[in-house]
Amino acid sequence: MQALFSRLRYAGVGAAVLLSGCNMEVLMPKGDVGAHEKSLILIALGLMAIVAIPVIAMTLWFPWRYRQSNKKATYAPNWSHSNKIEVVVWTIPAIIVAILAVITWTSSHALDPYKPLESEAKPITVQVVSMDWKWLFVYPEYGVASVNELAFPTDRPVNFQITSDSVMNAFFIPQLGSQIYAMAGMETKLHLIAREPGTYAGLSTNFSGEGFSDMHFQAIATSEDGFKDWIAKAKASQANLDTDGYNALAQPSEKTPVTYYGNVAPNLFVNVVNKHMGEMSHDAAMHGDMMQMHHDAPQESMQMDMHPHQDGDAMSSNITPAKAEK
Q1: How far apart are CA 308 and CA 1, in angstroms?
Q2: Which residue from 70, 120, 143, 196 has the least number of CB within 10 angstroms?
Q3: Helix count (H) and strand count (E) of the chain?
Q4: How far is it, in rounded angstroms, from Cα 202 to Cα 133?
């Protein structure tokens, strides 16, 4: 038994060493949404542990208890059923599943990413565009934009409008909570709030090609004065995000440095969404035309005249009604 405990102790130390490089940002939330999600993770973990811990313990105890050298263990080769065990095996998991179902239903509605957060503070709108391989953040209320850096004041909701100008990506700030996808021709929404100032890591969690591993950004939660200073720094930039500037930025690039734009073309975000909506509409129209051709072709081919063959057999020919009248 001592040897077994010694091995378990060494295994625990080894697991701690292997996990020491892991970043547990999800379990260190700095916002309301992240805090609720952490609670859900811990509740689910605790409910699963009710089953997992006894099973693991019995997996270790049974071989030790009923080893060949233990003459005190009861030998029952014909044992096959126990009502008590059946009740435990079925009832406890059923109760756990029912509890998880209720939690999942209520939390899915309470933490809906499209649902605005309740707050007396005025929210900030940030329009997010994922590119190859960088993030563009547009502040329509202030007329500025930034690449790979996001700033907002604490204790104020941030309303994100998210799309993609390339392949599908996933927008995620682990310490603030809620991952959501960015897709071309579509606008997804996310509402977050930070309760503590700091710089939080943001990233894409959906593989999107060669530069995916460096597709990170910084989310800076600061005071109201700090946010005003950040906006002033962005306005001071001489770079313009007009049509030409945007087209140059949209070219694939890796490890793009933080960039500020002091002037942004109106309706930039809407134009990005509509650009791909046009492509989707064109593809849908072509698909519809092909389906119509496929639908019409058999109808014409079915307009066939049957007339007797000279040998008495029926022979078909593609004669249209107009030809038949002649």
Answers
A1: 96
A2: 120
A3: 7, 15
A4: 13
Q: Percentage helix, strand, coil, to 5, in the chain?
A: 45, 25, 35
Compute CA 158 distance to the chain's CA centroid, rounded to the nearest angstrom.
18
| Cα of 73 vs its chain's centroid, Å | 52
Q: What is the CATH number of domain 124-273?
A: 2.60.40.420
Joined together, the tokens standing for residue 263 give 């002037």
Distance CA 157, CA 117 (A): 7
Both tokens of residue 175? 């310490």
CATH 2.60.40.420 placement within the chain:
124-273
- Three-state secondary structure of 59-108: HHHHHHHCCCCCCCCCCCCCCCCCHHHHHHHHHHHHHHHHHHHHHHHHHH
- pLDDT, tens digit (0-9, with 9 covering 90-100), for 274-301: 988 865 554 544 555 554 455 555 544 4
Rounded to whole angstroms, what are the CA distances from 17 to 12, 25, 43, 157, 280? 9, 18, 26, 38, 50
